[in-house]
Here is the input.
Amino acid sequence: MPLTATQVKNAKPKEKIYRLADQGGLCIEIKPTGKKFWRYRYRFEGKATMLGLGTYPETSLADARLAHLNAAKTLKSGRNPKKVKEAKQAETQAQNDTFELVAKMWLDKNQESWTQKTYRTNQGRLSNHVFPYLGSQPISEISPKDILRILQRIESKGTIETAHRVASLCSQVFKYAVFIDKVESDPVQIVKGALPPVTKTRKHRAALTDPREVGKLLRYIEEYTGHYIVKQALRVGMYTFTRSKEIRGMKWEEIDFERKVWRVPNDRMKMRNHHIVPLSRQVLSIFQEIKDLNTPSEYVFPSVINNSSILSENTLNTALRRMGFTKDQLCFHGFRATCTTLLYEAGWSTDLVERQLAHVQKNQVRAAYDHAQYVEERTRMMQSFSDYLDSLRDGGTVIPFKKRA
Here is the structure.
């Protein structure tokens, strides 16, 4: 006699699993925990088999009967309903585990720890070089030869470095896939050695390293007739040799006038670790001058067009071009190389300079120690360095500034 919806609903658990039969092999199984499962009991090639058709109440009696009817038709056609269901599930799983979907999961997972530029670059390389060829393929079915064809296609265009970078990205995606149990190994490791090595010479940022030329630059900045905010940003850039993004996005809330430090939040740092910049008297004076202007902006160096946004990325370099410096002679990022050279020539320790540059130690214990230990020493170094820059600007005798400190 067929089951009723009321019987299914009121079926209570017992000490052992039991089943209530409906018709044609359909039944509901009640476990001691109270959970209820629809089952289809049938024989295929003489062997008793059971097929799961869903759980109750998610799957109602009517739904279970419909699923049972379809499974019975499959059985009547000479196929095993259980094997057919497993094949469909495997196909669906494969479609959900394509390289592109797994790669996007990996990108999303790392987005918060990357800068926006890094995220866009990685996403762009995968979208341009990998997704069109392997994106729709189940990641578990991708072979080393598939990866090699992708890399050879890039190599044939003469972009060897791009091929290496794409190989590295693919390898990271596969390692993530191993971690989430989508694949068993990384096929990139087998073929990465097939790429020729990158022989490109590293291009360094244009910078000045002669103290006399640095003095000339400082005088040009002092005489700059462009926008006042741009001029002050250039001055602070020389005194602190921080990156363009860190300078341009600086907010008043980050400056501690009492402790004489600037705390750069991790979301604006290249390595995503917050950074403390000791402020010399010269830098504090510049900040005070700007503050006295009462500019209605949260930014120290707001855009020359809109106070609610920051200076554009090219504004500082454009100012240097107006002063007569070509791209091959100097760029704003080159301030870091200029100041680093002067500091090393003056005999300041590598640990101090590297900490000031916010170059993160690989050893996290060492990094934490540096963070706490070197602020006082860096404060002395930065004040001495600011005084030295002023002497170069004023045409003073060029001598190692650490000895004068």
Remarks:
- Strands lie at 18-21, 26-30, 36-44, 47-56, 255-256, 261-264, 275-278.
- DSSP finds 19 helices and seven strands in the chain.
- The chain has a mean pLDDT of 85.
